Structures are given as C-alpha cells and as structure tokens.
Amino acid sequence: MYLQMLYFLKLALSTHRPFTYFVFSKICPETDVFISWQDSTFHHNDFIIKEESASSKMHVELSLQKSTGKLLFAESKEDFVEFLFGFLSLPLGTVIGTLTKGAFTSRCMDNILRSISNMSVGKYLKSENIKDMLLQPHFGQKYSSKNQIFPLNGVPVRSDELEYKDLRTDGGFLKQSGMFLMTDDLTITPSSLSSSIDILKKLEVAPEDIERYEVSISLKEGLSMLKESLKSTSILTKSLEHQLKK
Fold first, then answer.
1. Which is more confident, 49 or 173?
2. What gap in Å lies between CA 94 and CA 87, rounded to an integer?
3. How many CA atoms lie within 13 A of 15 on its CB side?
4. Cα(25)–Cα(7) distance, rounded to whole angstroms?
C-alpha cells in the first residue's frame, strides 16, 4: 500500500488523470505525462514582477557547444548550489500555494488547492487556521540556507521567548566555499579540470568547440528551475533559454 500511494503521488504531480493511470498503468502515454509549460499562467504571475527587484541575484558560468549551441554544463559558487539544495527543504504546499500561486506544473495539485479554498470553514474544515495551514503552509526559514532567494515569510518556532535554530545548517548547507559543476539534469559535483574533461568526453565535444559566458539567476529563473526540476531533465536549458545565445 505504501508503494502504491507513492506511485499515486507521483502521478498526481505529473499527469492530468492520476486515477486513470493508477488503475490502468499500462496505458499511460509519455506525451500526456507532463503538462505543457505554455498551458500554465506561471509566467504571467504578478507575484514575480512584484518580488523580482527584492530578490538577490546569483551568477552562473555556462559552457556551450559553439557548433550547436547546446548547453554542456555550468559552474557556480556555493550560493547557487545551496539554492538548488534548498529545493528539498520546501514543503509541497509552499511550492503550490505560495510560490506559484495556484499555477503549478500539475493541474491535479492545483485542483486540490482550489478545492480547499472553496470549502467552507465549520461545515467541512475544522477552522480557519486549518484552512490557512493547508493553503499557505509556513516555511521555517530558520531551517534553510541564507541563499534561499524565494520571498517566503519564515515562521520561527518560539517557546517562552526563546528562538530555536537548527544548528545543522548554521545559515548554509555547504562546509566551505568553492566552485561547483552541474549538468543540465542538476547532477552537481565539485568543479575540477578532470570532471569537465569527463563531461566533454562523454558528450564527444572537442575543447575548442566550447564557449563560456555568464548569466544571472534571480527570482524568475529560480522559480522556473524549481518548476522544471519536477518535470524535466533539461532544467538549465529550459530555465535559462531566454539568456542562452542564439
């Protein structure tokens, strides 16, 4: 039962018809698994425009293949890597209700959000606090990295005027600063000459066929990466396509 529920959750996050595919798993076509980016109102969200100027920017160096324009890999300091690691600390309700404002990748999850919003308190839901907890769950910034750029209002846990802090993070996830290398599917490793060469060999790209340039990562790109990470294996390409050289 546990594995079945995990499978159903995966379908709810990635398809329009989770019940159908859960019961008839063999008929699930690849073309219907993921929702088109253009079908979402995500790009038109006023939330992005209002908060963009307040978010900090990070810088990433991209390595592209000159002959094809294909993104090979990227390199960055620890701030961007910690931002990516922070995806794992975000509650699902925060991603759907707070960050994307009901314009999530999965229509099913948006429908759950809308269903709760339309339910009356007292008759169905226990209280207004319960409704608020489900629609906009609190994000504990005391348990996140200082490089988390999303405009979330963290709610620290207090007891008798004492504030609790997770000493495991101490403001960050990484022990020391340095450069990191990441592929388009967000496989992240410490940057080194040997790791770069290994990627080029795997992709069969000659060193002289590479060009490098720097791009900025702000709230818009960050939200795009979060969304693409749930449905794609070409996260950097799809999230940064407006900055990639044509």
1. 173
2. 11
3. 20
4. 10
First-to-last CA distance in the chain?
49
**Residue 236 and residue 187: Cα distance in Å, rounded?**
11
CA distances from 180 to 9, 78, 184, 190 (A): 32, 7, 13, 4
The model's pLDDT over 195-228, given as tens digits with 9 standing for 90+, comes to 999 999 999 999 999 999 999 998 888 888 888 8
| Cα 128 to Cα 134: distance, rounded to the nearest angstrom | 10
Indicate the pTM of the whole model.
0.70
Q: Closest Cα partner for 221 from 245, 244, 199?
A: 244
C-alpha distances out from residue 206 to 64, 129, 174, 203, Å: 11, 59, 32, 9
164-172 contacts at long range (C-beta below 8 A, 24 or more positions apart): 166/142, 169/143, 169/144, 169/145, 171/145, 171/146, 172/78, 172/82, 172/145, 172/146, 172/147
> Cα separation of 149 and 96, whole Å?
17
Q: Are 188 and 84 in contact (CB under 8 A)?
A: yes
Tokens of 217: 């990562």
Rounded-to-integer distance, Cα 57 and Cα 61, Å: 13
Residue 139 is classified by DSSP as B
86 close to 145: Cβ distance less than 8 angstroms: yes
Q: Of 140, 143, 149, 190, whose CA–CA distance to 171 is shortest?
A: 143
For 216-246, the DSSP string reads EE-HHHHHHHHHHTTT-S-HHHHHSTTTS--
